[in-house]
Amino acid sequence: MISFWIAANALLVFLFFCLQLSKKWIVKEQHSLLIKSFLLALVVSLSFPALSDLFPKQRAAFTEIQKFSEELLPSHQFKPQMQSKTEKRPTQNLSDVFFLDFEKVKLGFFIFCSLFGLFQFLKNIFSILRLEQHNHLFRRSKKTKIFVNSKIHSPMSYRFWKNHILIPTDFLSKETDLKMALRHEATHIRQGDLVLSWIWQLLGVFFSFNPFFHLWKKEWDLITEIRCDELVLKNQYLQRSAYAKLLVRTARMQQRHYKVSLAMALDANLTRRIEVITTMKKQRGGLLRLGTVLALSLITCMGAIHATNENFQIRKLEMNELKSMVSEMKTDIPLPVNPQVLKWVNHYLGTQGGRDSLIAGKARYAKIQERLDNVILGNDMPKELVGVAFIESNFHNAFTSSQKAKGIWQFIPATARRYGLKVDSREDERLDLEKSTQAAMDYYKKLLSLRDLEKDWSLALIAYNSGERRLIESLNTKNSRDPFDHQVGDKEYLAKVIAGIILMKMPKQMLVMHPLPKAKVTSVFGQRKGPFQGQHFHKGLDLASKEGTLIRSPLRGVVKEVTDIYKNIPAYGKALVIDHGNDLETRYFHLKDQLVKVGDRVEAGQNIAQVGSTGRSTGPHLHIEFHHEGNLINPQSFL
Question: Are residues 285 and 390 in the same domain?
Answer without folding.
Answer: no
